[in-house]
Write a structure and sequence with these properties.
With 320 residues, this protein is of the alpha+beta class. The protein is built from ten helices and nine strands.
């Protein structure tokens, strides 16, 4: 079976039936967020890793998600999605189509040093590149062999790529009264390692630098990766717009969606560029939180005269 014929089958079948089944082969629309930007929109279960549902596959692929944002290989997301949400083709074959051996070996070569040095783990034992067919001897998929029907970026994507900074109408600020009223579940100092836009989801990969507060059930640890999901494009998801390699203070309440993703909602969270004084600021505010309301109001009045607070209600941060 030539690769060119396989590509023809994929381009005709995968994009034509939009989730319907054909001749008993059950294809389903991809619901795994990481894989919704792949050049195919149908998958089948069980997948190549043994998960019987996309819900289970979503939980498992999430373990590898930090590698995508570490950008250790150009094809990490393609390779993972070809395993956990493999292409479903109609009128062709009933088994999921695996990734090509060359793709697996390239991702392993690129990412294994990082897996060892950063995560203190080894390459997964259940992913053996030699188990996959080669590009010229078998049926498999690689980024070079499959193209989506349309790869033209949307107008919004074009605008965001050209825009160096977003014109936020209402920038997020560290607001004392709001902070106390919200009594956030967790507050962290974090460095943005990467961002990604998948469909209408804006995803931030963060390296936690310090945990200023955590009364949630999240297991937050310094120097570990945290993935936050937000709705909207790059300019709508956060304000100020987060930038790679910059540090921010993030205060949120824990909210997990039905897909097990930790959500960042700019209307419910607070985000600002990090300043060293924020460590003391949060300590003071947390102390105020533990006071009875009357005593707290007295402290508010005292803080009018403290220079670091420009008003009794607000400590403004950088605009981003």
């Amino acid at each position: 079976m030539s690769v060119q014929y396989l590509v023809f089958l994929i381009s005709v079948n995968v994009w034509s039936i939009s989730g319907q089944s054909a001749q008993g082969l059950q294809c389903e629309s991809i619901r795994i967020s990481m894989c919704m930007s792949m050049p195919w929109n149908l998958t089948q279960m069980p997948n190549l890793m043994g998960q019987s549902s996309q819900q289970n596959a979503m939980l498992k692929i999430g373990e590898y998600e930090p590698l995508v944002y570490d950008n250790c290989s150009a094809n990490t997301d393609f390779f993972l999605c070809s395993l956990f949400a493999p292409i479903c083709t109609t009128n062709f074959q009933t088994n999921p189509i695996p990734p090509c051996r060359e793709v697996c070996k390239q991702v392993r070569q690129d990412c294994e040093p990082l897996i060892i040095s950063k995560y203190n783990k080894t390459w997964p034992a259940d992913i053996n590149c030699d188990d996959f067919p080669t590009y010229d001897n078998g049926v498999c998929v690689s980024p070079q062999a499959i193209q989506a029907e349309s790869t033209e970026p949307s107008q919004e994507d074009k605008r965001e790529r050209k825009t160096k900074s977003c014109n936020c109408k209402k920038k997020s600020k560290l607001h004392m009264r709001r902070y106390i009223q919200s009594n956030f579940a967790y507050v962290i100092r974090a460095k943005v390692e990467g961002t990604r836009l998948i469909s209408n989801d804006f995803i931030m990969s963060l390296n936690i630098k310090a945990i200023l507060k955590n009364r949630s059930t999240l297991r937050l640890r310094a120097n570990e990766t945290l993935i936050l999901w937000a709705e909207g494009g790059r300019c709508q998801a956060t304000c100020p717009t987060v930038r790679k390699k910059k540090e921010y203070i993030i205060a949120c309440n824990k909210r997990i969606d039905s897909n097990g993703r930790l959500i960042f909602d700019k209307n419910e969270c607070m985000l600002s560029r990090w300043k060293d004084e924020f460590s003391d600021t949060i300590l003071i505010w947390e102390t105020l939180l533990r006071l009875p309301e009357m005593a707290r109001n007295q402290e508010f009045r005292k803080l009018r005269h403290v220079r670091k607070f420009s008003s009794p209600e607000r400590l403004e941060s950088d605009s981003g």
